[in-house]
Amino acid sequence: MELFVVNRHGEENKTVDEETNIARILKRIEKRKRQRAKRKEKQSAIINKTREIRTEKRQSKLKEGNGIEFISPALDDTEQELTNQSHFKTEASTLKGFTILGSDKYDKKPKIKRVLPRWLSNPTIISVNLQNLEHKVSNTKCLDKDLKRKLKMNGIKYLFPVQAEIVPWLIQSHQQSDIISPRDICVSAPTGSGKTLAFVLPVVQALKNHWTKKIRALVILPTQDLAFQVFKTFEKYVQGTSLSVSVITGKCTFAAEQNELIFENKTFGYLSRTDILICTAGRLVDHLNETKGFDLTHLKYLIIDEADRVLDTVQNDWLYHLEKHIYQNDYHNQNFKVLNLFTLQRRRAPQKLLFSATLSQDPEKIQKLSLFQPKLFTSVIHSDNINVEVNVDSFIGKYTTPKELTEKYIECSVDLKPLVLYQFIKQENLRKTIIFTHSVESTHRLTIVLQSLFQGQLNIREVSSRLETKKRNKLIEDFTKGNIDMIICTDKLARGVDLIGVQCVISYSVPKFLKTYIHRAGRTARAGELGLAVTLLSKTELNNFMNLLKEVGKNHLEEIKISNEGLESLGEKYKQALENLKDTVSKEGGQTLRKIKLAKRQLKKS
């Protein structure tokens, strides 16, 4: 049999028999195999030679005594010559300071160790143990008799660890302020550890002897609820003194707030009505821009509570406007604090006090505050002995939770979450519980389902931004008194709101961020009381949530098992609850549409 062969030029020039054609093909295959083998040998020789050269260089550098391994990113002449001989340019180029793929032996890059500023790497460590209190109020010499008496009236006999550290330090720094400018401080401690009282007491004691009304302390908070909470604490401890406390958050009209802040005197011009001002960042900027005579140039204390959230707020660029106002007639730099007679005559920058359970360590955010010789007070994770030497990385930038807090989780499918939650509440016989969801809509729907399942056995209410402030405050007050068993809410209540006696916090919706989880869990186990935090997780959410907690050293959370047999018996009840949810949402939707139509008709008539 003959085959027609086409040459490489596409010409049909000759015929050969089948056996001859097969022999030629086999020869070509063998020839290509030999060529590949030679290329591989050459390539391996180049790689081995290059490794030897690099090793010799490294050893010679170490012999010189500098102790540093440095590999030049460029190849020397010998390496370049070897590389040019090879057709395998792609792999040779990987030798230029990069790891050679497929090689088991290569130099590992040294792990980069984080370098922190001295004030961050050398903090004062605060204990998180709130049950074995040792610092008696009566033995705190720096506090005056009036404040000790008021603490006793409010049932406070012992100072919490954060108060025992911060209060004497701030009082002493104020006493020395005529000699040297006081340092700014950052305080990172668990929620419910007494941070508010830690700045209220020293500020009241420092300002109580001033008789002329000037705003000397400014407290900035992220929300209205937190602002009023701090306002009430200040009111307790300024009673019997000449100090006045005001709060501006936008709850009242702008004119009413202006009247509370200042008044105009024919002889002396605008005068202040208050000594201590508590506000939200946005409302502060409004008054700085629009209120004539509003003066913060005599400020001694600038306190930022829930500092990480306030700093995240870019609302009206409040920090820029505040600094511009304070230093509007001051030509010297606010950071210029060298001790001499000239600077003593000038106005000093206010002492900045930052407080949070999740204090930011972002250098860009901290830089914005222009802190003066800052000092950090922080809590240690997993350390009972405060005198033990602790690795800095084990607590700097980490979030702490109270020692009295127990943390657990429940794994369940998404569609059965409401039923699992109902069974868990019944199983543990829970009262005084807060349940967190991710949205207002989810809060509303879950409230309807649980109310249907419990059928009046528990008083369950929802708290969201849809509620008016008065109604929301009334619900929180009833919950605190025990008239309401459970509150279902969004993360609006997760920050700083002091709810007394909360037994359990349940995250129905898994928190996306570690900060959110820390603040949710912080609503319980406050002021030394025991508390429980439980998170409901689906299989897909479990790994991400556990990895989130590993960042703060929480490696072992106990799982709560809910019996499937108990859930099966509740099938009909659950089905009825879902039907009730559907009907209720449908009716509410109809009512909303009617309201919209009515509003449109009224607009047309007008």
Provide the CATH architecture of the largest domain: 3-Layer(aba) Sandwich
Q: Report Rg.
A: 35 Å
- Count every helix, treating DSSP H or I runs of 4 or more residues as helices: 21
Number of domains: 3
Give the full name of the CATH homologous superfamily of the largest domain: P-loop containing nucleotide triphosphate hydrolases
N-to-C terminal Cα separation, in Å? 102 Å
The 3D shape can be described as globular
CATH class of the largest domain: Alpha Beta
Strand content: 15-25%
Write down the overall mean pLDDT. 80
Strand order of the largest sheet: 3-14-6-13-12-7-11-8
CATH fold-level topology of the largest domain: Rossmann fold
Largest sheet: 8 strands, parallel
Structural class: alpha/beta
Unreliable residue stretches? 1-6, 8-16, 65-96, 331-346, 381-397
Helix content range of the residues, please?
Answer: 40-55%
Number of strands: 21
Explain this structure to me?
The chain is an alpha/beta fold. It folds into three domains: 2-93; 118-394, P-loop containing nucleotide triphosphate hydrolases (Rossmann fold, 3-Layer(aba) Sandwich); 405-589, P-loop containing nucleotide triphosphate hydrolases (Rossmann fold). The protein is 43% helix and 15% strand. It is built from 21 helices and 21 strands. The strands form five sheets. An eight-stranded parallel sheet has the order 3-14-6-13-12-7-11-8, with helices on both faces. Strands 17-18-16-19-20-15-21 form a seven-stranded parallel sheet, sandwiched between helices. Strand 9 (262-265) and strand 10 (269-272) form a beta hairpin. It is globular and about 120 Å long. The termini are far apart. Mean pLDDT is 80; it is low at 1-6, 8-16, 65-96, 331-346 and 381-397.
